[in-house]
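User: These chains co-purify. Model them together.
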Amino acid sequence: MGQLLRDIFSFGDRPVIERVILVVFAAIVLAFPWLVESAYARAVMIKFLLFALFALGWNLIGGYGGQVDLGQAKNVGFGAYATALMIVHLKTPFWLTVPVGMFFATLESFAVAYPMFRLRRHYFAIATLCVALVWKELFIFWDWTGGARGVELPIKPTPNFTYMEFGAIGYHYFIFGLFMAQFLFMNWFTKSKLGYQLQAVRDNEDAAASLGINVTGTKVIAYCITAALGAMGGSFMSVYYLYIDPDLVMPLDLSILIAMTVMVGGAGSIWGPMIGAAALIPLDMYLGAWLAGGGYYGIDFIIYGFIIMIIAAYEPRGIWGLIQRMSKKG
Amino acid sequence: MELATQLVTYGILMGCVFAFVALGLSLIFGVMDIVNFAHGEFLMVGMYVAFLISSYLPLDPLVSLPFAAALGFILGIFSYRLLITHILRGPMVAQLFGTFGLMLFLRYLVMFIFGPDVRTLSHGVLVGKQISVGWVSLDASKVMAAGLCLLFFAFVFWMINRTKLGRALRATSLDAEAARYMGIDTEKMNALAWGIGGATVGIAGGLLAHFYYITPTVGMLFVLIAFATVALGGFGSVPGAFLAGIIIGLIQVLGGHYLSELKFTFIYIAYFLTVVLRPRGLFGW
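Assistant: Joint model of the two components:
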């Protein structure tokens, strides 16, 4: 138990500095709704935390596993739809729908993982993308999912903990709680046996196999955990937006944005997802929204694309890699 | 029977276009083992060239083809020189994301300049015309597009197999190091593969614009179709890409007729099944 706690709260390279940063970050986020009045800024903060959450989950397979999965949106969709459909049709409390969504995401990922992990490199990335698109088109095609019209959740007049509906401040603490739980889980995961095995597989599959690691098995389990983590964020999206459709929760752009967030921040580091989300989400919410108001669309993605190209060409380890490089020099 | 004939004919016509779109992707992959996610965006740029030339100049959209090819060629060379040479040094993830960034950059640059509106070609010799062959009536623009794609496909195939330049290209693709020892400038060959890839897909875009709606986001769909085509044909195999293009065209047109909401789903499933069940495709090694 003591060892478990130590693993959860300890950091690798600079334990003290990183722990201080985490505490400062948590304090800022906790105080945020009391410091900032603007409803828009609060929405930006919630979206930042949501994408940091998604990125944390994706970092498991993409960063620590080194597998470029471009289909995380399908898992977000499973979580979102499980929550929305169960609340609407069965009046199930929110907290019971979350494990159901995670279960289905895991089940589906397990089913496709074995054939998928016979593939490598580009073939794998494109296959994940195709599977996610097939699911999105099926969710539009089917009637029981509400088709392209989507699902509308009943709106509760008062704050409600059974269905997790409340004002912006409530959602803020809710998503922050989910984020911290996942952050600490990931921090533990990197030091777990599976975490080390996964990183060994990423760095050299043949060497890992020669040490007795089940390469495919490790990847499959990592892929399934990533799916479950994505579904958790999807469930939050359902009760936060109170309306979901395949274009909101399962689009290709969402898969890409999640993966990009991790790449920009720094894949395979615990801080990368947060840094990436902090770099990309405010850019989109302020600059993109501001220019779209003037009839100029897409400037945020032009900048995203540019950043991605620069990072891919000069610092594939992302902003975290830059920070490390500079702190080593200094 | 009439309907079936028409559908199969359209399937084959679309297949010729898909095969031509996939050709450039296959070429680039063959020469330097990198997948170009921005391939569909090159196509989209070709479509916009056709749209701009026919809307703002008193010219037929067919006249735009050389310009689309030239712009595609330049775009390919620039992408290679400015981006690809740098990301080739990095890990595979960086290579994937690099062309991904290029894709986003081009797509949203076009959206920024021309807006997100869906456009179509309003005039042109072939736009909206029908021709009758036997008892089927076909869109003239599709017949023309398929015919020209077939012609250019044959031309590139001839160039790769019969000319000195093409042999150098193939040598680079088989073993870049050995090719360098033989005095082949492999850097130039890589750039050339990107140039040809851009030019061919630019032409395809100019032809597609005749009957397909033009939006900045159209590229993703075609790059996925091209991936499916190249995977089915076998990466690096030009005749494979052609046959696979026809098969994908038939899947798309027939599927689209009987289950229109799912017409692209079948293509994604075709990709998935191909790479899982027969990773080397129909003709790959």
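The CA atoms of residues 288 and 300 of chain A lie 5 Å apart.
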